[in-house]
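Database export, one record per block. Field names are fixed; values are copied verbatim from the stored entry.
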Amino acid sequence: MHLSIEKFSNKDDEKWDNFIMNNSINGTLLHSRKFLNYHKNKFSDYSLLIKKCASIVAVVPACEVVEENKRIFYSHKGSTFGGIVINSVYNNISHIDSVISILEQYLNEQGFDKVILKNTSEIFCNDNTSLLDYFYFKYGYSSYNELSLYIDFKKYDSIIENNFSASKRRDLKYSLKYNLQFKILKTDDEVNDFYKLLVLSLTNHNTKPVHSLEELLDFKNSRLSDIVEFYGVYYKDNLIAGSMVFNFNNTVFHTQYLASDSVYSKYYPMNFLNYNLIREAYLNSFRFFSFGISTEKQGEILNTSLAQFKEGFGAMSSINRTYFKELK
């Protein structure tokens, strides 16, 4: 089977995004140029298109990273998911085999020392991606797993709190005593307040946001205006908890960031926030609610308390798998 590879260029933007959103089995907004292009000054883009004649068989959003004098083909360091994105028409044994084979051959020819491919989690896919997993195994890739928590509304009681653990129902009941307010954050000033809260919350966990305030405002007002939403919980006009949410094709309601002010922990604002976010997703007919991962250091460390906190809302577990291989 003859496939060809070409490096992505800016003229391919529209064609790329049309493929991601309309023709692929595992493409998401995180693979789109609309999202990835805001990284263009952070990373050296090395995205690829794999074709059969004029038809796109697969794309690989990626950047070139140099670590310890090794050139790494990283798909994609600026996104939760990267990996090989497959055309639904070509999701079969012969094409998937050929795609991984030609990609590896190409990367060797280009002098890369290592390849890292971040698979799309199954709840974000339109079809089964088992063939990708199998052929990564067949071609000798190693992998690491990160644990993600999500809610499947097909298995969820319509009375939201009935799905919660006894302790979460109790905490929600306490939070309702304090006249907390839940609302969408619409203005730039409100998003600025959320960002300050996010920085404070993450500082308490010895980390910091991946995105800057300017990037969040760019998401809200331009780049992802139809996809991103901000929500907040207020106590007496003070923002005490909040979230930035991504809408994945009206199917997955994903909490990209969750933050709260520990000073107000006795009011259980995170319980109140999550209850209302879950309710928002359910009422708007989403299939899944995604809490994101609860692991660190490439899955080696499980934040057990965080994972169990999410489980308390009726969440179940899935795997985010990343494949990697040293090249010849």
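Remark 1: The radius of gyration is 21 Å.
Remark 2: Residues 93-109 form the longest helix (17 residues).
End of record.
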